[in-house]
Amino acid sequence: MNQKRSSELVRAVQLSLESKYTSQLIKSVSGDTAQMSSACAHQSQIVMEPITTRKVFVIYTGGTIAMLENDEGNLAPVSKEVLTDWLFRHLLLYEKRPNETEEQARERLTVEDGWLLLHQKAVDNYNKDFKVLYQIESLDPPIDSSNMTPSQWFEIGDKILAAKDDYDGFVILHGTDTMAYTSSALSFILWDLKKPVILTGSQTPLFYPRSNAEDNFIGALLMASCYSKNQFLQQVMIYDDTKLYQGNRVCKYDCDSFSVYDSPNAEPLARLETRIKVRECKPISEPKELRVRASISGFPDVRLLKVFPGIKAEYVTSILNGAHGLILETFGSGNAPDDPHLIAALKDADERGVVILNCTQVYKGTVLPIYDVSSELREAVVSGYDITPEAALAKMVWTLRTFPDQKTRKAVLEASICGETSAPPAKLIFV
């Protein structure tokens, strides 16, 4: 084969690697490749290094990230079709080559079977031999996160479990108002998944020129794909404003800022700034084995009670009547008034089978058995340690729905199942 023909073929292979579509571009080389010399064959093998493809399943639930104004002038979720069309046009903005027409770029960047390509310029920051594909599925219809319910937590969890062998990671587009509840719930529903599940949203829509949506979505896709083999990140997480948080350790603390979430009792897992920095995983103590029997039931009636100065036993009783579980938000390190009528109401509920989990109403802190005023309270309630109220409610719903007996429920709530508290960790063994 002459030198010109050899250069032609090598250039075609280089282009194929650049565009990540080898088969299409190899076919574009004219001539009979059967005459290719063994030297040229060896040269092409050197050039054609393997490309690692990572696949991500995106579940679009709704939320501000994909909202537009409706006819009444109010923000409402758009359809999956509107969202995917915008995402492809955004890809064109960054990946179209200077010498290409838009039609040529669309043809090159279009992937079959509904797959979308993550911006290669973003992926190259991690590894130039990676490409990331993702598919989008939507709740029908997509919703404002204020309308999210526990049944939908389990619906989303079921979708992920059904697809777990087909994807490297998962991204959930979700409104920020209740995202911490959903991420906490999914951490328990998917406690043994061992793949990254990242929830993200935004304060302003993708379609607006000044928005945090693009970075949040691209950052979540990047971490769910390129870092999917990092065992430390094989859990449910939230990505917000360049930070990746443990999903059951966050609270929404600011609705006027692009930095929406904080993790009061745990550091971010990673930071995506000019460089991506993943925090080193500190070894945890060996978890004890907790042998449990599961029996999935209907959705429990879980209620919240925030203790306040002057609270009356009658008010507490009215909250407890008909409840299956109660999240008790107490003062400071787990304290409540030592009113005998109030304590009696809580003990009576405990004897009726109502499970009560004590968590502090303070933004940052831990329930500790150190004050005399709360000594009798501890007889009726389970300590939540430093669990957030969002994670406490989600864990209670999951626990009551999954485990049938009172003793097991209390043991599960008191332990750290997937890092949601600083309590002693436990590994569930289903019997």
**Proportion of strand residues:** 15-25%
- Alpha carbon gyration radius: 26 Å
Estimated structural class: alpha/beta
Domain tally: 3
Average pLDDT figure: 87
Largest sheet strand order: 4-5-1-6-7-8-9-12-13
GO biological process, one term: asparagine metabolic process
Pfam families: Asparaginase (PF00710), Asparaginase_C (PF17763)
Domain Asparaginase/glutaminase C-terminal: 301-411
EC number: 3.5.1.1
Summarize the entry for a quick read:
The protein is built from 13 helices and 19 strands.
Fold blueprint:
Layout: H1 3-19, H2 22-26, H3 38-47, E1 52-62, E2 67-69, E3 75-77, H4 80-95, H5 102-109, E4 116-117, H6 120-123, E5 130-143, H7 150-162, E6 169-173, H8 179-189, E7 197-200, H9 213-226, E8 236-240, E9 243-246, E10 251-252, E11 261-262, E12 270-272, E13 276-278, E14 288-292, E15 302-306, H10 313-320, E16 325-330, H11 340-351, E17 355-360, E18 382-383, H12 389-402, H13 406-414, E19 426-430
Parallel strand pairs: 1-5, 1-6, 6-7, 7-8, 14-19, 15-16, 16-17, 17-18
Antiparallel strand pairs: 2-3, 4-5, 8-9, 9-12, 10-11, 12-13
Helix pairs in contact: 1-3, 7-8, 8-12, 10-11
